[in-house]
C-alpha cells in the first residue's frame, strides 16, 4: 500500500498522551479477526447456515464475506472529516499530499462508512442493492442506523480524488488479506434480519477489537499484512479468553435426574419429549399451576436444545428485578451442576450492579472448574446479552425491538439462544404487544422461545402463537397443558398436575382492623400469615395497626411483624427479603420458621419471593394475580400448626357490595383497571373455595376472554359494560403507542431501518431503569432519589460513617453506596418540588438521573409535604392524620 494509506490512523493512545497510534488497516484487521473468532464456535452455526442460504453462498464464503464487511466497519475513518480529529495524524497526511477541505458540522464516521462503503463494495462486484444495505449495517456499530438523509449529508465530508483512492486501496487490502474476494452474494434484496445480526456482530467485534491492552499500537506500517493477520488472530483468541467469552459446549448427554437431583414430573417429562424430537428451533407455551416445576422444564429444554440444535446459551426474562434476582441464583445453581467448563452468567436489569451476588458465582479473576463466571467485560454498556447465559427483566429484552441505540446488539445476543419468558401473565397489554414483536424477531434470528405461565388467557395464547407464525385449528386440551411448535403446526398435550389443592375463600370485613383480627385469630396458636395490600399506603397503615397492637399486648409478644414493599431502599429491601426467605422459604437447613409471624406487603409478595404462608389476607385484585397469591399459601410440603387445618385466603370486602351499581373500588382501581376488577369480583364474590388447578383456566377466561356470568342488577351490568368499553379504548391507544415505538416486524415490505428514529441514548445505564420502564411499560412518571442523612453539618448515606461531599464527584465505591440508598417516587406532589440532579453526579452511571433528598433525623419537607424514612416502614409521605400517601 502507498505511504498515505499507511498514514491513516484508526486509534490513538490519547489517555497516555504518548503519541502511540494504530494504523486504520491494522484496526480493521483486528476487528475482522475478532469477528472470525466469534463465528468460529461462539455464534450459532444454525443461524450462519440460514443466512448463507439466504445469500446463496456456501457457509465458507458467507463467513469470509461477513468477516470482510465487519473489518470495513471503519472505512468512514478514511476521510478528511475523521482524520482531522488528531493533529499529528492530520499533519502526516498533509505531508503525504492529502487535501483537507473545509466542511460543515462534525459527521459521525459511521455515517461516512454507510455512504462510502457501498461504493467500494460495488467496485468489488457486490450488487448495489445489497451493498447499500451492508454499508448501513456495519456503519451502525456506534448505535444507530444512519438514515438516507444522514448518509446524503455526510458525503460532502468524505473527500474525493486521493481520498477515494485510499478508501479503495484499504478495501482491496482487507478483501485480499482475508481471502474474501470471491465471496460475493448473488441476491440484491435487503435482508433486515441479516442486517440486524450483522450490525450486532460488528459492534461486539469492534468493542473487543478496540481493547488496546490486547491489540496494542503499531504506530506505523507493518512488514506484511498476511503475517500481521496471523498475529492478530492470536490476539483475537486472547481477547475472548480475557473477557471470558468461552465457546459453549453442553457436554455429554445427561438425564434429567442427573441434572436436577430428582425424577421428572409429568410437565418435565413432556419437556424431555419435546427436546428429544426437536430438529429445528422450538416455540413452547407451558401453562401449569404454581409449583409444578415449570422452571426446571425450561432449563432442561435450554440444555437439550443447546446439545441437539447448537443453541448458544440462555436468557431468562422475568417481570421484576426481584424475580430476576431470585432466578439468577437458581440458574447459577443449575450451571454449577450442569456444565463441566466455565461460562459467563450475567444479571441484566437496572439494579443489577446493586443486587446480592449469586451463590458460588465466581469472579473474572477466578478459574474454578464447573463454575459460572460473572465476566466483568459483559457487565458494561449493552454487552450483557452477549454473555452465554443471562437472567434479567423482560424490559431489557424488549429494548431489542424498540427504537433505541444499539437495539441490534440485544437481538444479536439473543439470536440462536433459548429465551425463556417467565410469568407472562404479569405483563400488561402494552408490554404484550412489544413481547409479540420480540417473539417474531426471535424466530427469525434462530432462537427458541419457551413461555411459562400459570394464568394465560386464551387470547394471549393465540397472539403469541401468531407472533411465532404458528396456528392451531383444534381447541387446546384442558388446563394444565403444553403447546409446542417447531414450525407453523402446533402440538397440544394435556398434563397431569400434581396433587389438587382446595383454597378456602373467606370474605372478611373490609377495614384494616377487621382484617387484622381475622388474620391474628387464625395464627394465635401459631402460624405465619401474609397480608397483601393494593397500595403502599394501605400496607403501611396495616403494619402500624399490627405493630401497635403487639406493643399494647393485644397480640402475642413472639409474633414477628414485618413490612415489605417497593418504597424501601435497595439495601433495606435486600435485608428484608433475606430475612423473609430465612423465615418462610423452602424447608431446609438455612430456614428457621418462627412460631408465629405476620408479613404485610404489596404486590412484591405475590411473585418476587419463594415464601410459604399458612394463611393469607388480600385486597381485591385481578383474578390472575389473586391466583398467584394463592400460590404463596401452603406452597411447600411441611407440617402446619395444629390450629390451621387447610389453606385459607381471606379477601377484604368492598364498600357498597350490596348496592345496585356494585362495590366501590377505590383505592384498588388506582392500581388496576376497573373493568378487570369488577369482572374479578363478579367471578369470585359468591365462591367459598378455589380448586387448584381445575378452577384456574375457568376463572381467567371469565375475567379476560369473556363476560362473567353476571348474577347482577341491570345497573351493575351496565357499569361493567361501560368499564369494558373504556378498557378496549385504552388498549387500542396502548397498541397504537406501542406500534409507534417498535421495530417493524420481520418480512416488512419496506426497509425498517432507512428512517429509524432513536429516542433513548442511555438505555443501558442502570440509573435510568425507571425511564426504560416508561418505554417498555406504560405508567406514571417517576423520579429516583438518594436518601441522605444530615448530621453535624455533614451528609451521610444511612448506615455509613463516611461523609458525602456533593461538591465533588463520588468514587465508584461511594456511588454504589449512594445508589443503594435510592428509591423511586411517583407521587405528583413531590415530583415538581424535588431538587435537581447534583452536577457532580451527572457523570456517574449509578447516579446521573438521581436527585438528593436530605433527611434530618429521618424527616424532610418536599415543597409543602412532610416525608420521612425508617427501616421498618420505608418511605412515608405523611398526611394530616399521620398516615401515608406513598
Can you characterise this structure?
- The structure is a single chain.
- The protein is an alpha/beta fold and 886 residues long.
- The longest helix is centred in the last third of the chain and has 28 residues, at 714-741.
- A hairpin with a 3-residue loop joins strand 26 (865-870) and strand 27 (874-877).
- It contains 32 helices and 27 strands.
- It has a ten-stranded mixed beta sheet, sandwiched between helices. Strands 15-16-14-17-18-13-19 form a seven-stranded mixed beta sheet, with helices on both faces.
- Helix 2 (24-39) packs parallel to helix 10 (162-178), helix 4 (59-71) crosses helix 11 (192-209) and helix 7 (109-123) packs across helix 9.
- The protein starts with a helix and ends in a 9-residue tail after the last strand.
- Helix content is 41%, strand content 14%.
Give a concise summary.
It contains 32 helices and 27 strands. The protein is of the alpha/beta class. A hairpin with a 6-residue loop joins β21 and β22.
Q: Return residue spans where pLDDT drops below 50 for at least 5 consecutive residues.
A: 360-374, 758-779
Secondary-structure-derived class: alpha/beta
Distance between the termini: 68 Å
Strand tally is 27
Count of runs of 4 or more consecutive helical residues:
32
Basic shape: globular
Please describe the biggest sheet, giving its number of strands, its sense, and whether it closes into a barrel: 10 strands, mixed
Strand content: 5-15%
Strand order of the largest sheet: 6-7-5-8-4-9-10-3-11-12
Q: Output mean pLDDT.
A: 87
Radius of gyration: 29 Å
Q: Residue share in helices?
A: 40-55%
